[in-house]
Design brief:
By secondary structure, the protein is α/β, with parallel strands linked by helices. The chain has two domains: 181 residues, 3-Layer(aba) Sandwich (Rossmann fold); 111 residues, Rossmann fold (3-Layer(aba) Sandwich), CATH 3.40.50. Helices cover 41% and strands 18% of the residues. It has eleven helices and eleven strands. It has a seven-stranded mixed beta sheet with strand order 3-2-1-4-5-10-11, with helices on both faces. Strands 7-8-6-9 form a four-stranded parallel beta sheet, sandwiched between helices. Helix 1 links the parallel strand 1 and strand 2. Bound molecules: 6-O-phosphono-beta-D-fructofuranose. 6-O-phosphono-beta-D-fructofuranose binds next to loops. The site of 6-O-phosphono-beta-D-fructofuranose has 12 residues, from loops.
């Protein structure tokens, strides 16, 4: 649809969380609900993301429904990766639910796939949407940070700090895998913040032989332990550790941090980001600005078309990577 400004006043909005959850999503829902109520809008909560639209699983949300959730991980609306929504038929069902409930517009909180879904819902079925970034991966364009990414980095850091104790005591090499399907954000941040010796990210080619050479040289100089962070999108930690052992003949251990990075008490940064973006999304809908994504760039709200936000984000890792290697 070319004209993304449909000048109809909205009375009722729906809010959903979709895809992988991230800490801070509840703070975002709270902000959407309370900011919308403040502006005289009715709010419907859609359960399990797009799945709830297909299944007609809708609840009513009021100011009180979102009491005491700002500090909670997960999402009170639940979330899912909905395969049926990838089909036109699935989206048709979803649009019919929106209409049946008298919902004028949606706030979608999620990652790249969720944004894509919102864009299709608008272009195919004229369901107005505003998107805000909720994913630990921080791989969405038009925003410096995504809801959940700061908590994930801090969780990874906490784990790395603990592993460091045993790593140093037992003089070992630890290969730690962090999340990040196509993006090295958690890996590069936690490597720099955690004082890791090396990091493997999808944005940079790596040469395992060179890494092993550095380990061997360090060993000769009396270095006793190493922490190597691997983004899941770059390689499998298990395979990397096996190769390091084969080349260096040194003992390695592997830790895959996995889903602990998705949960827990949201950091201040994530709560504030979520709260600002929740209200920004409602503002977009109140101003009949549809098919738009709100983010924060240099501390200010930044709005771009969803079709731009879903293009691959170009994460700059070079400076962090250089520093990690210099400080090893
Ligand atoms: O939400 C993003 C993410 O956590 C990625 O970092 C990871 O690859 C993926 O989700 C895991 O998804 P699931 O929980 O569905 O296995």
């Amino acid at each position: 649809m070319k004209n993304s400004k449909l000048k109809t006043p909205i009375k009722k909005i729906g809010v959903l969380t979709s895809g992988g959850d991230g800490s801070g999503m509840n703070a975002a829902i709270r902000s959407v609900v309370r900011y919308a109520s403040h502006n005289g809008l009715e709010v419907a909560g859609i359960m399990r993301g797009y799945q709830g639209l297909i299944d007609d699983d809708i609840i009513s949300l009021s100011h009180r429904s979102v009491s005491n959730v700002i500090n909670k991980g997960g999402t009170l609306l639940k979330t899912a990766r909905c395969k049926e929504f990838f089909t036109r038929e699935g989206r048709k069902k979803a649009a019919a639910t929106v209409k049946r409930h008298g919902i004028d517009a949606l706030v979608v909180i999620g990652g790249n796939g969720s944004y894509h879904g919102a864009h299709l819902l608008f272009s195919e079925w004229k369901v107005p949407c505003a998107c805000i970034p909720g994913t630990i991966d921080n791989d969405i364009r038009g925003t410096d940070a995504t809801i959940g990414s700061d908590t994930a980095v801090n969780t990874a850091l906490d784990a790395i700090d603990k592993i460091r104790d045993t790593c140093t005591s037992m003089e070992r090499i630890f290969v730690i895998e962090v999340m990040g399907r196509d993006c090295g954000f958690i890996a590069i941040e936690s490597a720099l913040g955690g004082g890791a010796e090396d990091v493997l990210v999808p944005e940079l080619k790596f040469d395992l032989r060179k890494i092993c050479e550095r380990i061997k040289k360090g060993r000769l100089k009396g270095k006793i332990s190493w922490i190597i962070i691997v983004a899941e999108g770059a390689a499998k930690a298990q395979a990397i550790a096996a190769k390091i052992t084969k080349i260096t003949r040194l003992e390695t251990r592997v830790v895959v941090l996995g889903h602990i990075q998705r949960g827990g008490i949201p950091t201040a940064k994530d709560r504030i980001l979520a709260t600002r973006l929740g209200s920004a999304a409602v503002d977009l809908l109140l101003n009949n600005q549809y098919d738009k994504a709100a983010g924060i760039v240099n501390g200010e709200i930044n709005v771009i078309p969803v079709r731009e936000a879903i293009k691959k984000k170009d994460l700059k890792v070079d400076n962090f990577y250089r520093l990690i290697n210099i400080l090893t």
